[in-house]
Protein 1
Amino acid sequence: MAIAGRKTIGVIGAGMIGVTTASFLLRRGHDVVLLDPGNPGEGTSFGNAGCFNGSSVVPMSMPGIIRSVPKWLADPLGPLVLRLGYLPSLAPWLIRFIRAGTPDKVRHQARALRTLLDQGIETLAPLVQNAGAQDLVQRVGHLFVYRSLTSWQKERAAWNLRADNGITWDEFDVDELRQLEPNLSREYVKGILVRENGHTTNPHRLVNSLASAFQRDGGRVERRRAVGFNVVDGRLKAIRCGDGAIAVDAAVLAAGVWSKPLAAELGDCVPLETERGYHIMIRDPEVTSRIPVADADGKFVATPMELGLRLAGTVELAGLAAPPNWGRARILLRHAKRMFPALRSDYPEDRLSMWMGHRPSLPDSLPVIGRSHRTPDVVYAFGHGHVGMACAAKTGKTVAEILSGQSPQVDVEPFSPQRFE
Ligand SMILES: Cc1cc2nc3c(=O)[nH]c(=O)nc-3n(C[C@H](O)[C@H](O)[C@H](O)COP(=O)(O)OP(=O)(O)OC[C@H]3O[C@@H](n4cnc5c(N)ncnc54)[C@H](O)[C@@H]3O)c2cc1C
């Protein structure tokens, strides 16, 4: 039976954002085809820390961040690396990034982020249930730990932003922390538990489960690379792929960090940059955590996953083409040993796995969600930076509302693709 307003919609990119968007579009009765040259969930959605943190409202560029940068860059174990040869290409993004960190702008960005993060797990739940993947999503909170009260005080502004956006937490001292996470080093003197947060125990398997359910329910998944769009008189006719065109009424661009040239073809020059990050996994770790734990000083997260303990983090500004620097992943192992002293100092290679991924980041820490400049038929859904897993469900639902002719529940104005003009 034909459904009124039913469209054929191509979703470009089968990461967490593309798969959730495609699933919400299918639920609204559209004919949906998901395009990706690889298998679902093998991009950035593969190896992240898996956190669904409603509390992640704090933008990367905060007032005063510029003062911390030299210290981070000088520390070989530090959370930030910048490859000097890439600096000329990066400079325009970096300038926008620094300019985004004023108190007013940061308050606006945090409010906007919260609209995508709040109720993220509840919004994802029907898709997870439909995929039979409930075992992959847990809601045991997220623990932030500090090695000194001074470092906790330094993050006051960030916690104020969270409080302003309705996020609540419980505070723990050193002894209480020990009861909460017995394996944690006694070096940590302060802990903050945000109970509304959750995590997936396997991001890759979660995206795959959602993609399989999408296919089972009538969605199509095709291994094709989108290379452009056929637009006639302002209306989309087809998505051009490497191996021919595919006729569609509408499209969603959800190709993560690879979205930039496709958006440029539609007249939107967005300053999308990769913030490269790494993970190292320890299989059968001697000890693990019960709750995902973020080390506020080291800026990394330890997440208990079904395949082991995953340490994820660091920001490397080096572009898309540079080869991974696996030394960055190994540094996370040293941090892990400091966090959980009962871990070993080193492991045989067959107990470790390493990964590098590209966070798709805009300088103001907000994604791009909205219609393209050249045609209203293409809606963008990319640029979720550090919070793509957590924002995926609300993003997907929002895009499905837009393409179904409804006014979205989330105000998309702050995410406008044209905000950089
Ligand atoms: C170390 C690290 C830790 C992180 N931890 C967290 C966390 O705990 N919580 C959180 O919320 N976020 C986290 N993130 C961020 C999160 O992983 C990303 O924001 C999210 O995965 C982005 O999803 P995506 O679907 O936009 O992109 P991707 O997962 O990269 O998917 C994009 C897809 O597009 C496909 N594609 C590319 N070009 C084309 C084309 N031309 N045609 C068709 N398809 C194409 C790619 O093959 C890929 O499959 C972390 C990131 C890193 C690196």
Note: The chain has twelve helices and 21 strands.
Protein 2
Amino acid sequence: MSTIAPLPRARLPELPAELAGHPAAGPEPAENRTLSILLDDARAGRPVHVEYIPARAGREVPWPHWVPAEIADAFAGRGIGALWSHQAAAACHAQAGRNVIISTGAASGKSLGYLLPALTAVLAGDTVLYVTPTKALAADQLASIRSLALPGVQAASYDGDSSAAERAWARSHARYLLTTPDMLHRSLLPGHARWSGFFSRLRYVIIDECHGYRGVFGSHVGHVLRRLRRVVAHHAPPGGPARPVFVLASATVGAPGVCARLLTGLDAEQVTEDGSPRGPLAFALWEPPLTDARGEAGARLRRTATAQTADLLAKLVGQNVPTLAFIRSRRGAETVALAARRSLGGRDAPAAKVAAYRSGYLPEDRRSLEAALSDGRLMGLATTTALELGVDITGLDAVLIAGWPGTWASLWQQAGRAGRDGRSSAAVLIARDDPLDTYLVRHPEMLLRHPVEATVLDPGNPYVLAPHLCAAAAELALTDQDMDIFGPAARPVVDELTRSGRLRRRQAGWYSMRRSVAGFAAAGLRGSGDAPVRVVEEETGRLVGTVDEPSAHLLVHDGAIYLHQGESYLVRRLDLADRVALVEPRDPGYTTTARDLTEVEVRGELQHMTWGEAEVRFGDVRVTRQVIGFTRRRADTGAPLDDTLLDLPPRQLLTRAVWWTVSAAERGRLAAAGVDLGGGAHAAEHASIGLLPLFATCDRWDIGGVSADLHPATGRLSVFVYDGCDGGAGFAERGFQAARDWLTATRQAISGCDCEAGCPSCVQSPKCGNANHPLSKPGAVALLDTLLAGAT
Ligand SMILES: [Zn+2]
Ligand SMILES: [Zn+2]
């Protein structure tokens, strides 16, 4: 191991509260062995920044007095003798009947916070409903509850895979039921009459991993929980206490109380102070070096994040450092594992210690992986984010994160897998070649000092609200009081549904027919429309997934490569009449991006700001998109291979957008100064779409943009950024609220890039409908300077 000079430490503001904590003794930063190994070799470049996060001491408290001895004994049998302070705080709020959200770091033992009151209630004869975004997590929780072997705690999971006999058993016997929002929506709520015994005794609803409920899916889940509240109230014995009590568990999110309220419609206590101990962590930000490869318009490409990750993984495993690498796709995870094994020397001992992890493993397979990692049979694991949930792998010496994982919550969740008591560890974020990652590794204050984001979801979206109101009316007649549960947007939507005949007004309230909502129940919650396009494996007829109608042309056109949960499929045929895309599993080594022509029309302005001579607006728009073809790109570098034309009809989207314009006078001055206005607006549009996910918790693919020197909708130079689903998802609105910070970051991302004329790290976009033409990097900077000069 070589010694290296410590990296210069930038002057940065104080760490956010969730990282600062209570200092404990730990090794000096310079002794961080893991980091030294990574810095050993100049070939891979060096980190742009290293942040040393100090250790934190734990705070232990005794068991609350109300926990029955048998429960305390069962946990003691698993080596848990006392609680961390946050676990006890959450448990006591719930026990006292107060809704609570517990929002602390990865591996802080949040589950104990809800298990104590929940198991106590079950022993007293009540029931508990546990809701998780994935079946895998439910299976893990079920195994963990059963391992406590508490007599009287009849736990069962209820999901799409349960047999008829298992379902019948769960209905009549389960006291602790584990399910997903999808199953609530599709089965438990429509069939609530058969569950009246369970619902009438329901004391707690546990919403685990609730930071995962965002965007349109989050809005759907919010309404499922409101429907649940109504159904439980209907079955509750008269005169009892208000039930159920909601206990939400989340990774660290900004404003957890707001998150709880958006999801459940109820106020909740917040528990955010993490009482668990943590070892010291070095957090390195890595930008892969430039290569000689050239992309569009001759731009030099960087080494890919996956190639860089494979290198670092091999280096660490070669030195016997237990390492976990997070990669976005399964293909990427497999590529990383393979490349690391290759560079470790094929079948030699160290190479055999590297594996790839895929989603969908059974709980017992995952337990054996965990065991192999902890006893050293396995040294390196490359995984998709599937492992982020519900796997008990912590205390590693190193975590590699290939590309910004999308949210701060995920970032800390992944980085939090590193670090064991008293030992130093390292986490490395490896930037992909796009504006967002590049910006983040060059602005560590933004990455490491930023408060974790608030959850973005919009329960008021009428496109999401309407089908849930119909479903609710089919479950139990809707009354005026129910409007309070569904929020202020509900009444106008109910009136509209009544006018259009989907709801019937009678004396006792509004009704709808079960069969009229069957389509919505079947369609599920993971899309925006009530009739999505099904993606079906041609050979077997297996349903692979669904795609929202508005996105179908973009994602599952003929010849598209469709990625689903890290698996890759080739689309044989998109049949619009039958709303089905026929696919075959195939990984051809290229990806596809659709090219489209987009027009936008303003339907109504909702908010507006004046910045000097510029205007920033937010409002309703009609977007007309026509997919005209697609580009195939090399999967490893993203370099374009060829273009194919398609013949598809235009699609309309009624959504929301944020847009800015500059005045005719400013435009004249810029034109006179020789600024390429069309190319500048287009470049600014691309970069701003790339950066919005930082402010609005969305994916670059959830939003779209349009720009023009003189746009017909405004008569001005304009840049529009819109939500990619009917009714909007809240992203454009967040962009409007954060416009100054968002567009300032956009300007910095463009002007700070080393390239000459624009590259994938700044203004080029892989999803451009116009093959990244025209683009002007200096034009974008000049325009954004003009815009931001008057920003308030
Ligand atoms: Zn660039
Ligand atoms: Zn473009």
Note: The radius of gyration is 27 Å.
Protein 3
Amino acid sequence: MSTINYSEKIPNNVNLSEDRTLQRALEQWQPNYLSWWSDMGPDGSQNFDVYLRTAVSVDPQGWAQFGHVKMPDYRWGIFLNPAEQNRKIHFGDHKGEDAWQDVPGEHRANLRRIIVTQGDTEPASVEQQRHLGLTAPSQYDLRNLFQVNVEEGRHLWAMVYLLHKYFGRDGREEGEALLERRSGQQDNPRILEAFNEETPDWLSFFMFTYFTDRDGKFQLCALAESSFDPLARTTKFMLTEEAHHMFVGESGVSRVIQRTCAAMNELKTDDPAKLRAAGVIDLPTIQRYLNFHFSVTIDLFGADESSNAATFYSTGLKGRYEEGKRVDDHILKGQTYRVLNAVNGKLVEKEVPMLNALNEVLRDDYIKDSIAGVERWNKVIEKAGIPFRLKTPHKAFHRNIGALSGVKVSPEGQVVSEADWARSVDQWLPSATDRAFVASLMGRVVEPGKFANWIAPPAMGINRQPVDFEYVRFA
Ligand SMILES: [Fe+2]
Ligand SMILES: [Fe+2]
């Protein structure tokens, strides 16, 4: 007989203490998860007491409990949003039928693939970010990094729960494989390319949490529409956490910009060399980081024409962003969508069946959403009276997936030759010099209330604590 008090150790609303099969699967998996965390989780931080929020239930009082905890003792829980009575499938060929409480045999392979692909991104980002704690610009930022890390860990738990509960032995094997792949490792890499890139510095981290965690939001929103009800309910709860990750990114970049603008006004210069000498990140470098993270992230939505995307939609596995708010037939047969193509060195629009273009539809929704935050960054620059504006690059810029991967396109959307690309790429994407400069600024600031020179303090602290609160107690 097991003596583990499950609801204490693994907060959950999936009736874990009564579910012997699930207990057995998780009991096998959890030690491997903890050993993955100790190998690949935040470097050198196992003994820190960190002011973290933990979800202990899905109601407003329980989903965000704050307190100092050591990260290996974090209570990674399993939560589903409350069930909707008599939920119906609301798109695709099964529209109007009851939502599935179990996995239909014919959709098993595709659903497993979708869950594994989502699940794989969660530990990947923890691996990508594991050295950042060593160069945190403040305790406040260090705490935010760790919060993101433990929640990505919980998102892995959420996906592994689905695999264990609904996919039997295959699911358990996939659960193990999720702990075995490694970001950036050549022989066993993470599934998606952006999750094999390094996150080498804090500007990259803020750009990643702004742009790439937002990809997470859009994928989760599409899965929250799924006919497979446990997947829909799991991803809905994950979205509550994702919002904070994007906040970390948006406010982080905003504070970098604010500090740079203050230095520009103090020194009365926009000369990158002078600003770099003053220890802040010049706006053109910020623009190049933005170009990089935006372009790498929009590749994550996949090929612009995809028969898989059509299948996932028609069979009811994955909906569109805000499916319920759209006014069309939610079946989409016979409808078309315009995608961008490269023909003889020119960008041309092409009309394709809507169902095959659903990756592009989601990518376009994402682009709209990500532009909004860039405009909020521009407000900071405008307020400082500086005539510079950040801009998301053209959709065809620096693409590696789909029809646009075959052409070289400038951030403004001009097709350019290979030679022009090579000549200009250092103006468009972070160069080795840019990256070395940003890396040179990274130094550890740990005194409460103190911030590195290249970033402004936040307007307020976490959970209404003061900015100089002791967010991390070092052992
Ligand atoms: Fe996540
Ligand atoms: Fe996230």
Note: Residues 229-267 form the longest helix (39 residues).
Protein 4
Amino acid sequence: MRQVDPTLPSLRTEGDINLTSHRAAFQAAHIGPATQALLAEDAACFLHQAMSTPCLNALRGAQGAWIEDLEGRRYLDFHGNNVHQIGFGHPRVIAAIKEQLDGFSFCSRRYTNEPAVRLAQKLVSLAPGDLRRVLFTPGGTSAIGIALKLARAATGRFKTISMWDAFHGASLDAISIGGEYAFRHNAGPLLPGCEHVPPPDPSHCPFRCGTTCNRACADYIEYVLEHEGDVAAVVAETVRNVPVIPPPDYWQRIRAACDKHGALLILDEIPIGMGRTGRFFAFEHFGITPDIVVLGKGLGGGIFPLAGILAREALNVAAEKSLGHYTHEKNPAACAAGLATIEVIEDEKLVERAATLGAKTVEDLRRRLAPHRLVREVREFGFLLGVEIGGPAAVDAAERIMYACMRRGLSFKVSKGTVLTFAPPLNITESELDQAWTMLEGAIREVSGK
Ligand SMILES: Cc1ncc(COP(=O)(O)O)c(C=O)c1O
């Protein structure tokens, strides 16, 4: 099954694993003694782990689209771990949290509370179809975990089909369905029954579909569903954050195949839900409704850890099991933050803005970057933007561009080794966007020597 073309670009380079020499050069030139001291203390007390500790830099502030480091340098943050649909520290969210903290700050399990019920109702009111049942968790990974448990309970099956190269969290169940080499490699035995299939990505397609997806990857999912015969769920990110956008009928085919073979469709919209793509739920672009959708990240307003699932009414079938049972599953302060966040998204019309400003900014970016031969492609899905760097030393160039941007005051993430990924807050000003793209142009010029 895994006959991947060896000539395809390797997927084994995770953008967060910094090429160490560029990182060291950035730190040597940029990080002063006070920051160095804090970084050393951090490295001395936290467990070291890839992509996290030791840290790159230390922050002392985050407001709107900006983060500020310990030495007062400000960066437009177009990564923000995808929590900042409404920017950092939105005053309405802060006010709602403060009010909640002054009133009632924690709710023990077995009890409910007003903010938790109102947030669940709000999400249900925004969801199409009969996605009417909600469960919150303190993080995206645990929300994926309850989606998997619910699929087992509802179908009496345990197998899953998920995608190579996908990310669904770092716990053992999440990496079992995840497809990133960096997380799975040397992890030991993972969950049984986790089948993996190729994602709809023409640039890495083992079916050699070329530049246009021929849906062979969708047909293959149906093939596996049929041959296994007892798959509980297909689990996938609706659109991989990079962004690589499946063809319009891709999800309709998968939806139909799941229905035919009795499997649930679970869509992970943890980083891209809540408006980023120009629809509140990304799956709305594809004219389907999943059985379970998973939200997280910005759900807590970029302040509280909060995630959750919305499931179809018919999936309310596990009353005797503890699907989640998390201590903070109805945390009133987190839920107050979530409610205020959605109110901001609605009142500031940020879903519509993601669509219109995303379309406008991608045109601007394409025009600005057209003269640069290092830039292979600029793509967008709402306000999720990707600039793919090409050429023989693309991974190195992408990393150098990232640090050149950081020196100028623009922070973002490199994905799949060569894609500069930008997720600006949906309420960013046009002048901040202009500043960011000017910094990007300067960085690309610097790295290409022109
Ligand atoms: C697509 C996707 N799923 C799941 C997760 C896990 O969420 P969390 O880090 O909140 O556990 C992430 C986090 O980056 C993600 O991007």
Note: The chain has 13 helices and 15 strands.
